Amino acid sequence: MSDRQQLRDRLTQILAALERIPGRFASIKAPQDFLTTEAGREHLDSISMVLLSVGEAFRDIDDRTKGAFLGQYPEIPWRLVIGMRNILAHHYFDVDEEVIFNTCNQNIAPLIAVVQQMLTDLNQEG
Questions:
Q1: Where do runs of H (alpha helix) occur along the chain?
Q2: What SS3 class is residue 37?
Q3: I need a surface site. Which of 46, 52, 101, 107 has the fewest CB within 10 A?
Q4: For residue range 34-83, what is the model confidence (pLDDT) as tens digits?
Q5: All structural domains of the chain with their residue ranges
Q6: Can you tell which superkingdom this protein's organism belongs to (predicted)?
Q7: pTM tops 0.85, yes or no
Q8: How many angstroms separate the CA atoms of 89 and 102, rounded?
Q9: Greatest CA separation found in the chain?
Q10: What is the rounded distance in angstroms from the CA atom of residue 14 to the CA atom of residue 83?
Q11: Pairwise CA distance, residues 20 & 2, whole Å
Q12: Cβ-count burial of 45 within 10 angstroms (0-12 exposed, 13-18 middle, 19+ buried)?
């Protein structure tokens, strides 16, 4: 399997994971909604796991391409995406529900759009 095909496959996995977040976030209207019910805590846990996994996948892509691939899409703050993974992995009990809320509310849709564009670009390149 070519490096390009591996990149496509990984981006397809990332996109599928990111596309699960809006459904899990739909019932959350304020940051404290993550903490007030068991369902809210489950949403926080599941969204956090997706963000951790996505951050790890982007870190891997960045390492494998020596920064060249993600650098083609500067509209996303990749260091923050990857940095969130580090916080979720190493400081999970310190996760701020407001940060997760704002990430879901403001950053997931643009990130989904960029991953879709990445896949389109890769498919056009052959």
A1: 3-25, 33-36, 38-64, 78-90, 97-102, 108-125
A2: coil
A3: 46
A4: 999 999 999 999 999 999 999 999 999 999 999 999 999 999 999 999 99
A5: 3-125
A6: Bacteria
A7: yes
A8: 19
A9: 49
A10: 16
A11: 28
A12: middle
